[in-house]
Amino acid sequence: MAEFRTCPDTGFKIDLNADKLIKWNAVTAVVFLLIGGLFGLLVALTRWPAVHLLDADLFYLALTAHGLDVLLVWCIFFEIALLYFTSAILLNARMVFPKIAWIGYWMMLIGALITNVAVLRGDSSVMFTSYPPMMAAQDFYLGIILFAVGALLGCLVFFATLHVARKEKTYEGSIPLVTFGAMTAAIIAVFTILSGAIILVPTWFWSLGLLSHIDTIMYRVIWWGMGHSSQQVNVAAQIACWYAIAAILFGAKPLSEKVSRTAFLLYILFLQLASAHHLLVDPGLSSEYKIFNTSYALYLAVLGSMIHGLTVPGAIEAAQRKKGLNKGLFEWLTKAPWGNPVFAGMALSVVLFGFLGGISGVMMGTEQLNLITHNTIYVPGHFHGTVVVGTTLTFMAISYWIVPTLWQKELVFPGLAKWQPYLFGIGMGLAATFMMGAGTLGVPRRHWDMTFADSAMGFDFPAAANLMMGLNGVAAVMGSIGAAIFILNMVGTILWGKAKVPAAAAPAEEAPAEPNVTGAATSYGSAGTMEVPGTFVLAMIFLVSFVLYYFVNWKYLSSVWGLS
Amino acid sequence: MSDFDTGPGGTDEKIPFMQQLLDSPLLLLVIGIVSPMVLYIVWGVMETIAIPLAQ
Fold it and tell me: Of A261, A285, A289, which has the smallest distance from its Cβ to B22's Cβ?
C-alpha cells in the first residue's frame, strides 16, 4: 500500500517511494556532475596552449571520464529523477514497482562506478565513443551495460506508473504537457538503450576474447544510435523542464497544447535519426542514407525544436500579459524575475541552446557543410551548446525549485544562487563559442597537443586559433566556478539548509484541495491566445540569425574547397 | 479507448485520431522504437553489410 505526504508548498500528493527515489537519483546525479565537471576542467586547462596541464596519458583518461560522467551518468540519473517526478507526483499517482526502481538505481550506480574505476585504472582511456579497434578493459563495457539496464528499469517504472495513473483515474483527460515531454524522453531512452545493448554486448564479448573482432563501421552506425540519441533524451527532458518552469513560475499554459504535443511527436519520430550526422564522412554508407537521416528527417525534428523555442517564451508572454504586463513589446520580459535562478537559468538555456547548440547542429547536419568542421573542436563546441548550456543549465534551474520544495529547506546561499546561472551559462556559452571558432579554423577535437610538437609533419594553426583555445580555457574556468557554486548550494541546502516547515510531513487532510502549481505541469489546456508580439519579434531575430549563419557557412565552404 | 470517450476538455466530442495517438504511450513507444530502428539502424546495417570485403 502506497503512503503519501502532502507538499506544503505545492499541494502535491507525494508518494513516499517516489519522494525517496527522486532524491537519491538527483543527489547521485549531482555527485557525478562534480566528478565529471572536474575532469572537464582538467581537459579545458590542457587544451589551453599556454597551460597544457596534463600529459598525454592523463589527458585521454580525463577526457574519457569527463565524457562518461557528464554526458551519460549525470544527465541520465537526473532524468530518471524527472521521470518519477513527472509521473508519480505530477499525476497525483502511486509509484508502481518501487522495488524495481531501486534495483534500477543500484544497477546504474554500480555500473557507473565500475566504468569509472576501469577508466581511472588507466587501461580504458578509449574516450566516450570507445571506437574499435581500440579496446578497453572488459569491465568498462560491463559497467555501461549495467548502467543502461538500470536506466531501462527506470523507464519501465515510469511507463507502468503512467498506465496505473490512467487506470486509477488520478488525472482527467490527457496527461499534462510536462509529463508528455518526459514520456518523449523515456521513449527515446528506450531506443537509446536498445541500440547500446545491440552493440555494447558484442563489444564486451570481444573484450573478453569471445569474439574475434568488431566491425568498425558497424560499431559506429549502431553505437551512435546510443551515443547521439542519449543526447536527444536530454533535449526532450530539458524542454519538458522549460514547460514545467513556465507553469511553476507563471502558471503558463502552452499557446497550443496540440501544437506543442505534435512538436514532441516530431521528436519521437525523427530526432534519433540525427545520429547519422556522425557518419557523414564515413565511407561505405550511401548519400541517400546520410542525407535522408540528417537532412530530411532531422529538419522535421528541428521544426519541433523551433516550435518549442517559440511556444515556451510565448506561453510566458501570454501569462505575463494576462497579469497586466502589457506595455510595449517587452514589458513581460523586462519585468520577469531575472533574480530568480529558476527563471534566469531557464531563460538563458532557451537562448543559448537555440543560438549555439541548435543553429550549429543544423549546420553540421548538412552533408556538405559538415566537411568544414568534421572531427574539429567545433563538434564539442556544438554539444557544449546543447548538453551544457541547454540541458545542464536547465537541470540546474529546475533544481533550485525541486530541492527546496522536496527537501522543504531554504537555499543555503540564495545570494550566490542569483548569480550562478549567469556565471555558468555565460561561461560555458563562451566556451562553446570559442571551441566552435577554433574548430572553424581547423583545430582538431580530442587532440592532446594542437602544436603537434612531436609530430614528424608539423602544422601551424593561425594565431587566432591559439587565442580561441586560450579564451576557451578562461571561459571554462568561469563556467566551472558557476558549476561549483551550484553544487555547493545543492549539497549545502540538503545537508545544512534551514528547514522551511517542521521536518514531519503535513498530514494529507490538511492539504489544499488543488495543487498550487498550475498550467502545463498539472493539466491539459492552452493559453487561449496567440497575441504574443514580443515572442514573435524574438523568434524573427533567431530565424534571421539562423539563415545568415547557414549561408555564411556555404560561402565559407566555397572558399576552402578549392575545386573551381 | 472508445471514440466517444470524454475529451480533454470534459466534452462529449468524438476524440480525433491524432489525439488518440498522442494519448497512447504504448503506441508512441512502438513508433518511437520502430521508426529509428528501421530508418537509422537497419538501413545503416544493411549498407554496411553490402560493402564488399577486401580481397
Answer: A261
Q: How confident is the model at residue A507 (pLDDT cuts 50, 70, 90)?
A: low
Number of helices (H), then strands (E), in chain A? 20, 2
Interface mutation vs chain A, best among B6, B12, B40, most A CBs within 10 Å: B40
B27 touches chain A (CB under 8 A): no
Class of A15-250 in CATH: mainly alpha
pLDDT tens-digit profile of A285-320?
999 999 999 988 888 999 999 999 999 999 999 999
Q: With respect to residue B41, please indicate whether it lies within any of the assigned structural domains.
A: yes
**B34 CB near a chain A CB, below 8 Å?**
no
Nearest residue of chain B to residue A173 (CA atoms): B8
Within a 10 A sphere around the Cβ of A419, how many other Cβ atoms?
16
A268 contacts B10? CB cut-off 8 A? no
A346: its cell numbers: 531557464
* Distances A132 to A199, A215, A275 between C-alpha atoms, Å: 11, 8, 18
User: Of B18, B33, B44, which has the smallest distance from its Cβ to A289's Cβ?
Assistant: B44
Give the Cα separation of B48 and B42 in Å (integer). 10
Q: CB-CB: which of A279, A284, A297 is closest to B51?
A: A284
Which amino acid, A139? D
Residue A264 Cα, gap to closest chain B Cα (Å): 10
Q: A173-190: per-residue pLDDT in tens?
A: 899 999 999 999 999 999
CB of B16 less than 8 A from some CB of A: no
Predicted pLDDT at B40? 96
Q: In angstroms, rounded to a whole number, what is the distance separating the alpha carbons of residues A203 and A235?
A: 28
pLDDT band at A511 (very low <50, low <70, confident <90, very high): very low
CA dihedral sign of residues A54, A55, A58, A59? positive
Show the cell assigned to B2.
472508445
Nearest CA among A85, A86, A87, A69 for reference residue A28: A69
Q: B40 in a domain, yes or no?
A: yes
Q: Do A269 and B32 touch (CB under 8 A)?
A: yes
B32 inside domain? yes
Per the structure, the count of domains in chain B is: 1
B39 → closest Cβ in A162, A163, A293: A293
Segment A148-152 shows an average pLDDT of 97
| Domain spans in chain A, listed from the N-terminal domain onward | 15-250
> Cell digits for A16?
513516499
- Alpha carbon of B54: minimum distance to chain A alpha carbons (Å): 12
Q: What DSSP state is assigned to residue A4?
A: E
Residue A494 sits at the vertex; the CA angle it makes with A489 and A496, to the nearest 5 degrees, is: 85
The domain in which residue B37 lies consists of 22-49
Residue B11 lies in a domain: no
The CA distance from A173 to B9, in Å, is: 7
Q: Calculate Rg over the CA atoms of chain A.
A: 23
Residue A297: predicted pLDDT: 86
Residues of B in contact with A174 (CB under 8 A): 8, 19, 22-23
CB contact under 8 A, B29 and A190: yes
Query: Residue A502: which pLDDT band, with cuts at 50, 70 and 90?
Result: low
